Give the backbone structure.
Amino acid sequence: FNLRFGVLDKLKSDFNDKRDRCVQIRQLELLDSEMWSEVMKRLSELILACFGFYIMNMEDEVKKIEAQKSLPGWNFCSYFSVKESMALNYISMKMFDESLIIYEELDA
């Protein structure tokens, strides 16, 4: 029994830097709907946080490419590729309005 808490503590020390990323599910709680709703809530929060971080990095990449727009040899294809990748990621998250905004920016 002590071993389980030791493993859980080790996982928490390795993965819980700023967010609570580890959840303990005991066998007695497997049928507890409240526990599962908490797990799903945490999971969706972490997925959205990861998605937000990914989009921030892509926006930074777009800004870098846009900053080089006036330089000779600027490549529209790489700009288009990053913007379309962002739009497709929004589509995969069912965020259609954000995706449409990006496609309208590309069309302008």
User: Anything to note?
Assistant: The helical segments are 2-15, 33-67, 76-92, 96-107.
